[in-house]
Amino acid sequence: MTEIRALPLDPAAFAPFGDVLDTQGAPDKVINAGLCGRYHDLARMDFGEETGGRAGISLFDAQPRSLPYSLDLVERHPEGSQAFLPLSEHPFLVVVAPDEGGLPGTPLAFLTAPGQGINLLRGTWHGVLTPLHAPGRFAVVDRIGETPNLEEHHFATPYRIVA
Question: Does the predicted model carry a pTM greater than 0.70?
């Protein structure tokens, strides 16, 4: 079993796979009579409008996992992006993999900082939602549509993700 070390989630390292959503640094604008900072347009959202898709917001309640974590399954959504916004300050595990001829390449693992969310670009291979603490509640913004939007890949030999 190949071991993969989970690294802190970094916007530059994660950029080929998606966007890091957080409130670090100064806001882009201050609104609401100076009482609210707006961190503007943080994600490259794509909902497959050309195939009849639209944006939807769902709530997920995922079972917490622990490290080391055995990664045997990744998936991707060819018709739209998918954003995960934690509803708690707990970090979660993010696994992504480059596409290599229609199959996932060697995965990369990241640990979010408290309060960070992510947006996965359309077609990005990724692990399942993996909270590391309860509650595992997330707001998810993704594509709603009639055409298929899920491809799964099971690894013959699982990867072991460690902190």
Answer: yes
